[in-house]
Predict the structure.
Amino acid sequence: MSEIHPIAWNSGSRILTLLDQTLLPSREKYIDHTDPETVAEAISTLVVRGAPAIGCAAAFGLVLASYQYSGTDGKALAGWVADAADLLADSRPTAVNLAWALKRMLEVLEKTGGQDVGRIQNSLEAEAIAIFNEDLASCRKMGNIGAGLVPENARIMTYCNAGALATAGYGTALGVIRSAHRMGKVRTVWVCETRPVLQGARLTYWELMKEGIGCTLVTDNIVGSLMSAGDVDLVVVGADRIAANGDVANKIGTYTVAVLAERHNVPFVVAAPLSTIDLSKATGESIPIEERPPEEISGYGGVSWVPNGARIYNPAFDVTPADLVHAIVSERGIAQAPYSSSLNALFASGD
Ligand code: MRU
């Protein structure tokens, strides 16, 4: 197995290293970060992307902010870190893992209020490392739990990239596929290319290839025809935010896949850690959907393929209603309809 490390924290040198995902698969380039401003920029430009991964990156962004402070006043340090948290919070709006991780970090800041600067910095660093390690452990658990839903000899479809690249490692949807593959259950994976940024074609295919999991790249608009031919046994995707009623925000186009899966009786499964579930949102309607630059659609590498001045609408995510979701796999088990009670039960269950 080839290890994939989208995020690496070096404690000694206090450097956050991010794999630049915008360059994959042609270049594997790692960029060092020493300040929260460039981490926020890396999040908004998709150098680091995927819900859990941006949560981890933002947490380390706050650690970098705290180490930038060279004074001795704990209160001044807290203000400095809070400003960095505001900046990072604004970098992407849909994936709740970002706000969730920042909240955890700010809670530590509040608890360590009266302590000296060095201790506050150490506590923040320890919390960011814990967020990272917990995500990795959650992905592995989720993978093993979710693999139980995979039939023998399965042809699995996935959308976008919910893999090691999108998390601290191992992945959510791709974690399920990895675990099922190790159990010998996977015949093949249909990788949807995922217009417009091609996370499927560039990132998911690259990950599966590195791990030797057989897969086939397809365009997003083949989904209905593959399903109607009976060539898909299961769909597994990740999520950016799940509302209390089980509505799922994920990469634009996920909803289309879910509707087609329902039409063809293909189970549509979502794999996501508890940090992606936002019980404060009653339904998917109140989840903020990020709109991204028109250039993601109009062309690539400076070449435009649309008429000059074309009007473009580019939402990055859509919401799949809970009634199309067969199951939500988390690190604490599987939730099924009615989600309003089953999601609550996951939170109540503890580890
Ligand atoms: O815009 P992206 O690439 O950050 O979108 C990523 C997705 O939609 C993923 O499916 C989601 O974040 C889950 S990642 C485990």
Q: What stands out?
A: The chain has a mean pLDDT of 97. The pocket of MRU is lined by residues 49-52, 95, 160, 162, 166-167, 172, 199, 238-240, 250-251, 316 (CB under 6 Å). The chain is about 40% helix and 15% strand. The radius of gyration is 20 Å.
